[in-house]
């Protein structure tokens, strides 16, 4: 391929990727904590730390000969039943039994009055 065509395609790709990545949440420290040999490239040669983080990747230039801009690990999450009864989101119907509620994959606590007893889990991120 002609060098001009290759440069034009590269610039187009970079612009397209940056426009797709706008609004991407930066990865957490937990997601970026990995051995250097586990890193998979996420950027292009010469990418800055700011550009790397802008596209949702991790950046660490402290180890030579490995990718500095690399893909984060997936977030580890778990389902928990909320402790505050006033933040519950209804998952059932009036009079639902505990076993019917849990069959739906929901939490069940028959107290206090005036709040849902069958309610949805919350998804929270696990610690590192």
From TrEMBL:
CDD domains: Trefoil (cd00111). Residues 28-73, 79-122 form the P-type domain. Disulfide bonds join 42-57, 52-69, 81-107, 91-106, 101-118. InterPro entries: P_trefoil_chordata, P_trefoil_CS, P_trefoil_dom, P_trefoil_dom_sf. Keywords: Disulfide bond, Secreted, Signal. Residues 1-21 form the signal peptide. It is found in: Secreted. GO terms for cellular component: extracellular space. GO terms for biological process: maintenance of gastrointestinal epithelium. Pfam families: Trefoil. Its main location: secreted. This is Trefoil factor 2.
């Amino acid at each position: 391929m002609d060098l001009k065509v290759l440069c034009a395609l590269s610039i187009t790709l970079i612009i397209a990727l940056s426009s797709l990545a706008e609004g991407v949440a930066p990865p957490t420290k937990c997601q970026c904590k990995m051995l250097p040999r586990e890193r998979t490239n996420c950027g292009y040669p010469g990418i800055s730390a700011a550009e790397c983080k802008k596209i949702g990747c991790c950046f660490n230039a402290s180890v030579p000969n490995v990718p500095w801009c690399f893909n984060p690990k997936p977030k580890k999450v778990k389902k928990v039943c909320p402790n505050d009864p006033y933040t519950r989101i209804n998952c059932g119907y009036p009079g639902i039994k505990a076993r019917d509620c849990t069959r739906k994959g929901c939490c069940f606590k028959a107290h206090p009055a005036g709040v849902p007893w069958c309610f949805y889990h919350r998804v929270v991120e696990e610690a590192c």
